[in-house]
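Here is a complete protein record:
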Amino acid sequence: PESADFPEAIAAGRPIHYHKARGAAARAMDAVADELLGRLAGLGLMMMASEGEGEGQGPGQGDASASREAA
């Protein structure tokens, strides 16, 4: 979307989801991510989150709560 949210987030040095989490730009990024993950799952390269807990994630992308507990 043509939105001031992206330039504002970049200027602030923050990801769009931190800058304006419920804005159109953040929703558009969510849609792109969902599409990409769906295509990867369709190719058998990645499992969708609903197919298994914690499975199909790349290195360093495990459960964040487990990382916090270990610290």
In short: DSSP finds four helices and no strands in the chain. Residues 55-71 have pLDDT under 50 and may be disordered. Helices lie at 5-12, 16-19, 24-42, 64-70.
